[in-house]
Each structure stands twice: as C-alpha cells, then as structure tokens.
Amino acid sequence: MQYVQDHTIHFYHLHALDWVDIVSALKADPGKTSELQQSISDWHNSSKTYFAGVQDKLKSFVAGGQLGIFANAYWGHPAYKLPPEANLMAVAHYLEALDWQKNIIRMHAILGSKNPHAQTYLVGGMATAINPNDESTLNANSIAHMMQMAQNAKDFVEKVYVPDLLAIASFYKDWAGYGAGVGSYLSYGEFPKDDVSNTDNQFLPRGRILNKDLSKVHPVDQQKVAEYIAHSWYTYPEGDNVSKHPFDGETNYKYTGPKPPYEFLETDKKYSWVKAPRYDDKPMEVGPLARMLVAYASGHERVKELVNGSLKKLAVGPAALFSTLGRTAARGIETLVVAEQLPLWIGELVDNIKKGDLRIHENSKWDPSTWPSEARGYGFHEAPRGSLCHWVKIKDGKISNYQCVVPGTWNASPRDAKGQRGPYETALIGTPVAKPDEPLEILRTVHSFDPCLACAVHVTDVNRKELFKVKVS
Amino acid sequence: MGEAKSGSIYDSLRKKGVSRRDFMKFCSLMAATLALPVGGAARIAEALEKKQKPTLVWLEFQDCCGNTESFLRANDPTVAQIVLDILSVDYHETIMAPAGKQAEKSLSDVVKNQKGKYLVVVEGAIPLKDGGVYCTIGGRTAHDIAKEVCGNAMATIAIGACAWDGGIPAAAPNPTGAVGVKDAVKGITLINLPGCPANVVNLTGTVVHFLTFGSLPLTDSMGRPLFAYGRRIHDACERRAHYDAGRFVQAWGDDGHKKGWCLYQMGCKGPETFKNCPAQKWNQGTSWPVQAGHGCIGCAAPHFWDTMTPFYKRLENVPGFGVEANVDKFGAGLAAATAAGLVVHRILRASKKEKSSEEEK
User: Fold this and answer.
1) Shortest Cα distance, chain B CAs vs residue A24, angstroms
2) Which pTM does this prediction carry?
3) What's the CATH class of domain A177-358+407-472?
4) Which residue among A61, A137, A264 sits closest to B293, beta carbon to beta carbon?
5) ipTM > 0.85?
6) What are the residues facing B158 on neighbouring strands?
C-alpha cells in the first residue's frame, strides 16, 4: 500500500504541476473535459456538472486572491502543452487524490498503528497480533476493512492515475528523448513470494540492467557495492579517492564548502553531503524505472503486458523507457501492478489464518543475550523510491558500525573519484530550456526521480554567469 | 447563526461546496480535539465565519518530511479541503508549485508584507555547530532562515520531535549540534507539538484554537498544549485494566498478546509519556500503537531517542496507580525530568537490570 499511496501522491501532488497548468484549467470547457474523461476511463466523477463544479471552486479560489502553494509558479510557460480541458481534468484528480490517499492508507494504521511512521515492525516479525476471536487484534473485521481499502486503491489507480498518465504523456512525447540518466539500473527485488530469504522468488525480481540493454539481466551481489567520497564532505583515512564497502564504511564528516550564505558550491571540489555509491564501480539508477526494467527484461508477464501496452498507446518504441517520460510512466505502471496484488496478498493472509497459522514473530533471536559476541549482517529492500540497504556490525550486544545506502544516495550522488556523474546529474545533460529564467524543464527531470531532498540546480550560460537558480524539493 | 460574512473562511468554504453540515462536523471535531466544553463547536463556527484566511508558512530543516506527511493525512473527508482553505499556505517546499527563486519570493513576500501577522510551522531540527553548515537551503543556514522567518511571525509552531528538542539529529552524540526551535530562536511566541510525527489533529486543533480564541492554547512547562499533551498515555490507555490486573504480554504473539493484554513488559513507554494518542488515535481514529499491538515508544517525550531507549526494555519505577493531573505535577524519575535526573534514572535502571531480567523469566 505504501507503493500505491507514495507513487500516486508523487504523481499528482509533487510532479503533475510540472506538466499541468492550473491557470489554463480556468479556460476549459467542462463539457469537453467530461467527454475527455469518459473517453479514457469509466471513473464515476465524469459529468459536465462535476467538472464545472471543480472549475467554479478553482475560480473562487483564484478570485480570493490568496493563492497559497500555487502562487509564483510557472503558469503560462510555453513548455506547458496540455489543452485547458486536460488541465481541468488533472486539477480535479489532484483534489480527488488528496482525499483518496488519506483514506486508503488507513490500512497502514490497522497493520502498523499509524501512518506515517508505522510502529509495529520488529526484528523478526510484526507486533500486530492475530486472533479471529478477539476484538483487540487483527480479525475478520479489520481484514474486511483492509480489503475495502485495497479495492478503492486499485480502482483509483486503474481508472484515474494510469489513464491520466497516458493522456498527459501523449502531449509530451518529446520527453521520451530527454533525461535518460546513467542507463544502468539496479533492483534488489521486492515482495518475497515464499521465504523472505529466498531472493530469487520475489514478485518484483532482483537484477541489474546495464547500458540500456534489455536482453540481459545481471545478478546482484551486495559485496559489489562501495561508496566514494571524492566530491562529498567526508574523509577516509586511506585518502579520499578510494571507495569503501559499507561494512567497512566510515562517516567522518568534514565540511570544506563555502561559508554560508553563499550563491555557488565549488563543484570542482567537494560539493555534497551525499556519498557516491557505485556498483562494480559504476553509477546505478534505482527506483520504479529500474524495477520495471528489471521485471520487463526478466519476463514478468504483467509488467511486460502493461509496458508494451503503454508503448503501443503512445506509439513509441522501447527506447522511450530510458527517459524522463519513461521514468514517470514506469512509476504509474508499477503502481497498477502492485495495486492489483493487494487484494490477493490479503487473501493469502486469510488463507494462513484459516489454516490456523497465527504466527507473527520469530522469537528465538529476540533477546540480545542469544547473540554471538560479534555479528554482522545486512538487510535490503526496495523502498518505493528505490533500492535501500543497511549494513550493521554488532559487538558485545552493541552496534559498532552502521551504514545505509538509500535510494537518494544512489540517484542524487555527486561525481566519484573517477569523475563519473550520478543519475540526476547525467539526466540533466541535454535538457532543453525554453526560458532560462523559468527552467520548468529542469524540474520535470529532477522530479521524475522522486527526490527525497531539496537540491539546487543553477542554470548558467557558458561563461558561468548565473541566469537562474532552481531549488527542487 | 447569521449569514456568513463575505470573505470569511466559512464563506470561502461554502463557495467551494462544503455543506453547512460538514462545516459543523469539522467544528465539532475540533471542539472535541481541543477538549472544549459544550458549546465549543458553535464558538469555533462563529469565529470561522468572521475571519479571513491567515497566512501560514512551513519550513523544513533537518527533517524526514514525516510531519508534512502527517499534515496530508488530515482526518475527515472534508478536513483536507478545510485545512487548505482555512489557511493560505504560502510556502511549503514539499507541496508548493513554484521552485527556486520564485519559491524564495513566496517566502520573502510573506516576511516583508505580513510582518507580525503570519504563522510559521517549523519541521525538523536546526544544527548550530560549525556555523550551521550542516543544513543550508539556497546557500543560507537553517538557523539564519529560522531567525528571520520565526522572528517576524505572529507565532511559531514547532511540529514533531525534531523541531521541538532536536529529535533524532540531536540524539547522542549529536554530531551537527542540532537543537529545536526553542533553543535556536529566542524571544518568539512558540508552541511545541512533539511526536514522531505529530498527529495532524493537534496541529489543526492548535490553529483553530488560535483562530477561535485569538490566543495560543495553554501549555505545560515544556511548551506543549495541554489539550493534546495534558494526559498521560497510561491513564487513558485501553489496555490499562490489564495493567492493573497484572495481565502482561510476555512475548510477541503469545496468548496475552492475542488477547490484547498490557504491553508494559514489552517496553511500553505509556507510563512516562503525555499525549492524546489513546483518545484521538491516528488516521481518522483508525488505530494507535498500543491498539495495534506495539508499545508506546514515548515519541512525545523529551529527547526520546536517548531517554526512551532501549524501546523494548520495560520501564522501572512506574509511580503509583492513580491518574496524574499533568506532566508538571508528575514526580521525579520521569523522562521529563532534568538531564541530571535522567542520569539518576539511568543508574536506577541499570542497578535494577539484574533483578528485572530475573523477574521476566
């Protein structure tokens, strides 16, 4: 459910306004918006009256003069290509998605106590007790609620998100030619089908794609991960040009950047708090695009069907996947693939309960006194934003080293000691900018990665005279 | 109740299709959150029918965006609209449409044009060490921005554990010298909504209290509103009867766990934590940690990463069985005590370690 909710919020609330011009929606003909909606799906909110109502709300909001989060944006920018009717449809769904997301995520509250920051995860299982004959635990009632939410989640993704995505993408097909990034992709795989330690049997497979070659899926071994700090504000005792595996990783911070307040970072020196993780010494993109490409190349039936169907609908070839548009589309496709599984996975829980399997936790290693005096381990998973792995070393019951390499570190990494750029930086090369003082196009590509941080992109001319600065969050 | 004044919050809601019924439902919900006496809902409604939308800016520093996510979960189906419509949120990096210089313009316009009239929410800790280089936005330090934006605001709301006392960035050894707003910007009107994250109901409650009564809600000695942090979790807990009867979960998934028994022995920090989780719950009243089967981790308690860990070790010295009035009347031995008190508390815990592990067997 986290995938479904995160991706949908990202699309409507953190990314859509790079493509959708809200102000243009004021000029839309609600009747034509209704026709457009009915032509792309059978979603129930599709009447002329409904869209006229949304437009009236928008008009009243604008007339109120307090534009809040929508003030000072790039409205009217020449890079906005949607007709007013499509803009109005997207605005309506922006508002619907805002309501929808907080309702479906109550599933997290049932299983995890609250959202955000679910609190029932344990080392070795979950703290959510199951007992069909008690009202204070997971029972038939709570399962029925979850099933309902899963259904609502799937409906919205199927009938609103994915149709919107394809409709909007059809006006921005040129974006299949920009924002490719490093062209190599990593996925640890996610949603184990049986034993969690069986990494070869996951609903979304693990693997790597190298140099945009979908004919081969390469294996993943955590030992091949290492982090550089040549351009990051850290030091290694062996010197700043080596890379270190996270088990031996160090976080010795040493800021050497300009004294704030400053305008520019010194990008030829160290310029980031993010380290530069590399797999087999190569930068990797992680996230929904990486997972969908690995699944596609691994022969995942449903992913292949949806990816091929989308490419056909947009009349573009597989090369279009390696782009800003491909990245945004892959997120939508993944949302649907996962949303379709939710009711089935809840069904599996029901089957287990029917069989009398009420286990929630493996207790044998719970007590630290059962641990060896020295231990180490790693845990990986695919967060919605991408590959995430933690490495831990334990000595005498206490953590002696802990290193995380998270999706943002992979994608937002600065250059490494060999000068190789990370995915964000590479993806921006060649991006056209229609109005240098309003670089909307930069936002499109950086937002397509679903960044977990605010970053700054300076638009400068060849003489390094700053034309504009874009802060992306 | 008369016609809504043109331009009032209610008027703007009405124009956006919010029914009178939904509006009153929201007012009642707020009255309940704020623990107002009978008639509280009508008073809130009256205030919202008169007032213009106040401006709010939201700053993010050393944070994980958890409080922003919490904000997006605003409760009732109409509350999401109401929260957006009650306030004019002019700056919020995560959800605002503009970026870069335009975004900065949105913020500087507010500071310049509405000096002393706007509200500011701060999410995340503020690092002070080494001139504040550990958190900069657009080349400015978090500390610099906070001083300017909070310093010119009518009032500041520090949301979440990090903005309150530094939270996880400030956990020992606090490498970046992270502190909460209270220690970074002095002399401002400040209200603290700790928690990891804070529950959006308490944010809305604080804002509506302000709109209704023209003042910030009463707080305890740590600047937390009494309506939300006035009661001890342990005293309002749905599993309290099991505690009093000595029925404790001993292992995850054991018989007691399957019957909803008390989680005290699994490390629950409810006896040392003051917050309205048991009453308000989370996500439209769906659940909260103890209901879901996991103990409270004390995320609304001071410096909880240092004082409430290990999360799964049970508390020592839980004083008394009575209902305590509030944290200020609650005795020593608490995590809420001074740093020195905490050390003493630690020693007590350590010295009882052997005994308690025997008891647990």
Assistant:
1) 15
2) 0.90
3) mainly alpha
4) A137
5) yes
6) B122, B192
